[in-house]
Every structure is written in C-alpha cells, then in structure tokens.
Write a structure and sequence with these properties.
The complex is a heterodimer of chains A (561) and B (98).
Chain A: E1 2-4, H1 5-15, E2 20-23, H2 30-36, E3 42-45, H3 49-63, E4 67-71, H4 75-89, E5 94-100, H5 116-121, E6 126-129, H6 133-148, E7 155-160, H7 161-165, E8 167-169, H8 187-199, E9 203-207, H9 209-214, H10 217-226, E10 230-233, E11 248-251, H11 258-266, E12 269-273, H12 279-282, E13 293-298, E14 312-315, H13 318-328, H14 335-347, H15 361-371, E15 377-380, H16 384-392, E16 401-402, H17 413-423, E17 429-434, H18 435-438, H19 445-451, E18 455-461, H20 466-475, H21 491-497, E19 501-504, H22 511-520, E20 525-530
Parallel strand pairs in A: 2-3, 2-4, 4-5, 5-7, 6-7, 9-10, 9-12, 10-11, 12-13, 13-14, 15-16, 15-17, 17-18, 18-20, 19-20
Antiparallel strand pairs in A: 1-8
Chain B: E1 9-17, H1 22-32, E2 37-44, E3 50-58, H2 63-72, E4 76-82, H3 88-96
The chains are: A alpha/beta (561), B alpha+beta (98).
The complex binds thiamine diphosphate (TPP).
C-alpha cells in the first residue's frame, strides 16, 4: 500500500505508542496535520510553539517517556528552540518535528524558510533533515531510540513539505524503537567502589537527575539505608528520596541549607549517582568535597572526570550499579558520623523566617503542601519562588518535581503543568510561579481553559523580577534596573478573562481559607498571592565561590555587599 | 603563515557515516567549545556509506573531554587518537603548497 511521508510519520508515532502531540500548524506542516486528522493521536493546540515544546516536556518529565511537539517551518521552528534547549540541559526525551519548505526551495530564502537543521544542531542530542519519504522509516524510530538511549535528550526532525507529500510503497513497518541496553558495567570498578564504601567513615550519597531517569529511586534508598548513607540531592534529583526520610539532607549547592553544604565539606567519600557536578551544585569545583574521595556513576561517559576527577568512575546504568552495590556491600552503621550530622543539622538549619507577615514564602509553600495530595505534581517557573520550593517542598516521589534546572527558563511552568495534567489527569498539578515568569507564557492559560485541567497556579507575587533584584541587591550595590513591573498586571483578572478561575488573596478577608477553598475546588485556577518584595532566598553562595562561603542574610543597610 | 606541526598537536581519526550534516555536527561541537581545528581532511571509504575524517588539533587539557563528546555524536562510529608519527598532514601540505 502507498503512504505519504506525512502518513508514515503519523503511523510510526502511533506504533511508538504516542497518544498526544502538542503543536501549532502552518503552511509547511499542513500535510502532517492532514495525516493527523485521521489518526487516533490527539493533537493539543498550544498558543505559542514554545508552549507546545514545554507541554510536551511536561508529558515527558512526568511519564519518563519521549513526547512529541510539532511546529511549522521558519518562525514555528524558531519558537520551539527554547523548549528544545531546555530539554537538552535537563536530559529530557523530547521529539521536535518541524515542517520545512519544499526541498527545491531550501537555500532560496523562501517564505518562512529558516535553517532549522543548523539551529537545532547545537541544542539536540541529534537532528536530521529528511530528504525522502523512505528515509522516514529509518529516521523516526532512530529519533525515539536516540532520545531514550543512555542519557536521554531531545532530538529534532525537520521534514520538507515535498517529503511529507511524497508517496511510497510500504510493505513492512519498522519495529518501534526500544531503549537500547546500557553499556556493560566494569566489575573491577564496582569492586573498588565497594571497597571505598567499606573504608569510609563519613560517606555521603549525592543523587542527581540520572537516578530519576534510571527509575531506581527505591533501590538507591535501600542502599542508603543499608550503608547508612546520608543523602543530598541536586536540583534535578529532588524527589528521588522522600524529603522526610531520616537520611535525607535536602538540596545541596547555591541555595542549599547550610548544614547540607557543611556535611559535604566534612565527608570523606562522595558517592555521586547520576549527577553532572553542575556549578550551581558544586560552587567552586576545586573546593567541593575537598576531603572526599569520589565515586562517580553515570551513563554518559563524557560526564566522568569532566568537572571533578573521580577516584572511581563507573560508566553505566546507575540502577545496575546500585543493584551490584546492594548485593556486595555489607550493612554498616556509623554512630559518630550520625552524631556529627545531627549536630550540624541542628546548628545550621535553613533560615526559615516566620515573622514577616502571613504570607512568607515558606509558610505559604508548607500550607499548600498540606492542602494538596502528597503525590501531586509540583511544577515551578524560574526565580526565587522556584528556589524556595526546591528548598522546602516535601517531595514524596520521583517525577513529582518538574522544574527547568539547567537552562532556567522563565515561562516553563504553565505549559509544563498543562503537559503533566494531560499525561496524568488523575493527579493534581500545582504550578508555583512568579509574576515575571507567569507573563512569559501567559497565553497558555487559554490552552488550560480549553482542556479544563486540574492545574492550580499559585503566583508568589513580589511585583519584581525577584531573583535578579536579589543579585542587584547583594552584588551590584542596590543599583536596581529592569526588575520592576511598574504597572502590576492583575493576574487573577487575566485568568478569569482567559476562562479559568482567578482569585487574589489580597482581596480576601480570610486569605488562608480562600487558598484552601481554591485548592480544593476541582479544575484550573490561578491564585495570586502578594508577598514581601524584599524577601530573598538564603543561603546563597555567590556564583564562583566555594559552597562554604554562604551569604545567610541581607547585609545591614549601608553595609555593602 | 606556517602551520605548526609538533608535539603540541594531536591527530584524531574519525570513522563517520557519510551523509549530509555529519561535518556540521563535528565542526559545531568543536566550535561551541572554541576548540580550534588546525586542519581537516575528509574522504569517503571504499564502502561509501562511511567516511574517514582526520583532524589536526592543538593539544590542550580539554582534548580528552572533547574526544568523549565526539564519540557521543550519533554519526561518529569510532574515534582514534594518533601521536605525531602520522605524516598525513605534512603530505597534505605539499598538495596545498604555501
Ligand atoms: C527566559 C528567561 N529570561 C531571563 C531570565 C533571568 N531571570 C532569572 S530569574 C528572573 C526573575 C524571575 O522573576 P519572577 O518570575 O517574578 O520570580 P521571582 O524571582 O520574583 O520569584 C529572571 C529575569 C531567565 N531565567 N529566563
């Protein structure tokens, strides 16, 4: 039977188990949309291609499976770029499919032509421009295989319109892509790791996003218990161990609690699993865990020795490495280290400041956590609100926490929350945002209203680009510029105008009760919460400084920074 | 300008898939890291599905890392490092002249 290139793409997506795609059509992707119109795949119309990219990311991050976004050529494709670059930094399996002008017009500055191949090249794991319909039979499964293989990541497939229209005979469909087997582990390195663990007096386990991707959070928690390993998480590793676990010491790094970073200062062995030693986590890399030997497990060989040279570097699947260590390391108990950690924890807690009125960010966040189901999905935007959430939200499970880590993209929150709610409609999705970030993809409120999803947007509104203001305050002598929304938009009214619920707690006589009601009512709502514009995120390690050099509070007036 | 060719150089031999876009992926990877390529030679193998790419690079501390990143490229089948003993680039110079 004959199929067009577009029909081949759709057929292969169906065979791969894709049930939804997010996108916006245009001239160069019309054949694809034509083929989609007779498919079981549900098309989610975004209001901006960046929204489509992040909706797909929301699906991929909650499900741990590749998700697909579609855009047309030229501006459609360029609008996708930010979401693709974001997926690259956080290792998210995103499949971006773009229409391109017909092959004969490529290179002629045709209407809506952009060099999508060249643009995607630097921000994907791999990308293609497809030259014939026949090639699609190879490229589409390869796109899924590569997105899932080893360290996941985004791929992009650019398909000229004539290739979408080209009819070819297909006698046999390629098999859907499977996750390729990880590289085999080297036993000698695992033995060395086990020996180092047996010798260690003050070991710490560091969990990264790789643990979430590997789906081995429960196993690694058992390992931590078996060896009494106190455990820290990177930003991307949050949720890999329940926040309330007795061995869990929170997020490390730039905005980690003081005790968390101090424990790392003192540890003599760091077992780093699925981490890439990002500068936000390590601070000045040379002084990070100075006293410690390092065992580094990562599926991406190019991460080993990249920032910190490891004493034992294990290239492979962290789940398999953990299984080995569980089987080969005898149980251990470390009473004196436990005592030391307990003391540091008591002496250097997170500075949770409760005095500044009803809606201090921490109080608000713990109130929200009390009111929504413990297994809800927590999405954030980027800024102070994001760091406060990372610091104190009581995470209970992996893939609960969706936030733009590596790229730090404002505007991530709303569309990612929509994607999460589409993928797992049974869950409540909480989107913690800031007034700046909220306005960066505000158009997706219309998408949210269309689908009536159970997304609760809580805007911590300080009427400023808070995290930037904080840096100008601490490091640029309070010479403020470009951080103030002089005319504060009425976000609750915008939400209502876009067709979802919207309340402003400053108008409520009993704000806590109103918050409670809004969170308990099914369906989408935006809750605007005015917070103190002077509130800052502490501790803070100035970028490039060692993690022990934490700023703990705003210097007294006139004290300089 | 004389191209230096001495112990500060490293030579990489890559086996890659021979199709459009491969050179972009390789050159883009080096360009993004501001890692200069002194010389490039690329020829298809007898089996024309594959090509061989020879790169002459300055050796610096990032070489190991950039090799691992190159190895990660989907169209790169193999990365091999040679020391200065390979005379492929001096021979190429006789072709290019000065
Ligand atoms: C797309 C994008 N542009 C600029 C920045 C730089 N930036 C980081 S945080 C921030 C302010 C965020 O403000 P808001 O969303 O209101 O959050 P707050 O810090 O006030 O909680 C800015 C501008 C960014 N991260 N992303």
């Amino acid at each position: 039977m004959k199929y067009s290139g577009a029909q081949i793409v759709v057929k292969l997506l169906e065979r791969q188990g894709i049930r939804m795609v997010a996108g916006i059509p245009g001239g160069a992707s019309l054949p694809l949309y034509d083929a989609l119109s007779s498919s079981s795949i549900r098309h989610i119309l975004a209001r901006h291609e960046q929204g489509a990219g992040f909706i797909a990311q929301g699906m991929a991050r909650t499900e741990g499976r590749p998700a697909v976004c579609l855009a047309s050529s030229g501006p459609g494709a360029t609008n996708l770029l930010t979401a693709v670059a974001d997926a690259k930094m956080d290792s998210i399996p995103l499949i971006a499919i773009t229409g391109q002008v017909p092959t004969a017009l490529i290179g002629t500055d045709a209407f809506q032509e952009a060099d999508t191949f060249g643009l995607m090249l630097a921000i994907t794991k791999h990308n293609w421009i497809v030259r014939s319909a026949r090639e699609l039979l190879e490229v589409i499964p390869a796109a899924f295989r590569i997105a899932m293989a080893g360290r996941p990541g985004p791929v992009a497939v650019d398909i000229p319109k004539d290739v979408q229209l080209e009819q070819i005979e297909v006698v046999q469909w390629p098999e859907p892509a499977l996750i390729p087997a990880p590289p085999p582990l080297a036993v000698s390195e695992l033995e060395q790791a086990a020996a180092l663990l047996a010798d260690a007096q003050r070991p710490v386990l560091m969990l990264g996003g790789g643990v979430v991707h590997a789906g081995c959070a429960a196993a690694i928690q058992s390992l931590a218990e078996q060896l009494e390993l106190f455990t820290v998480a990177t930003f991307m590793g949050l949720g890999a161990m329940p926040s309330t676990h007795r061995l869990f010491l929170g997020m490390l790094g730039m905005h980690g609690a003081r005790y968390t970073n101090l424990v790392l200062e003192e540890c003599d062995l760091l077992l780093a699993a699925g981490v890439r030693f990002d500068d936000r986590a390590t601070g000045e890399a040379a002084t990070f865990c100075r006293q410690a030997r390092i065992i580094h497990i990562d599926i991406d060989a190019s991460e080993l020795h990249k920032i910190k040279s490891a004493d034992v570097a294990i290239n492979g699947d962290v789940a398999q490495a953990v299984a080995y260590l569980r089987a080969h390391c005898p149980s251990a108990s470390r009473p004196s280290w436990r005592q030391r950690v307990t003391a540091l924890r008591a002496d250097y807690p997170l500075p949770i400041d409760e005095h500044a009125g009803e809606f201090t960010p921490y109080r608000l966040l713990s109130q929200i956590a009390r009111l929504v189901p413990p297994d809800c999905v927590v999405v954030t935007d980027v800024g102070q609100h994001q760091m406060w959430t990372a610091q104190v939200y009581p995470f209970t499970r992996p893939r609960q926490w969706l936030s733009s880590g590596g790229l730090g993209t404002m505007g991530f929150g709303l569309p990612a929350a929509i994607g999460a709610a589409l993928a797992q409609p049974q869950r409540t999705v909480v989107c913690i945002s800031g007034d700046g970030s909220m306005l960066m993809n505000i158009q997706e409120l219309d998408t949210l209203a269309e689908h009536g999803l159970n997304v609760k947007i809580v805007v911590l509104n300080n009427q400023h680009l808070g995290l930037v203001k904080q840096q100008q305050a601490l490091f640029y002598g309070e010479r403020y510029l470009g951080i103030r929304n002089r005319r504060a938009a009425d976000l609750a009214a915008i939400a209502r105008a876009m067709g979802i619920g919207g309340i402003d707690l400053q108008d409520c006589e009993h704000p806590l009760a109103a918050l409670d009601r809004a969170l308990a009512t099914p369906g989408p709502v935006l809750i605007n919460v005015p917070i103190d514009p002077e509130a800052m995120v502490f501790p803070m390690v100035p970028s490039g400084k060692a993690n022990r050099d934490m700023i703990l509070a705003r210097p007294a007036a006139g004290g300089g920074a | 300008m004389t191209a230096t060719y001495n112990s500060g150089n490293a030579i990489l031999q890559l086996t890659v898939r021979n199709h459009p876009g491969v050179m972009s992926h390789i050159c883009g990877l080096f360009a993004r890291r501001s890692y200069n390529m002194e010389a490039i030679l690329c020829l298809p193998l007898a089996d024309r599905r594959y090509s061989q790419v020879w790169l002459l690079l300055d050796e610096d501390a990032r070489l190991e890392q950039v090799m691992r990143q190159t190895q990660k490229l989907v169209d790169v089948i193999d990365v091999r490092r040679h020391d200065g003993a390979v005379d492929i680039f001096p021979r190429l110079r006789t072709v290019v002249g000065e």
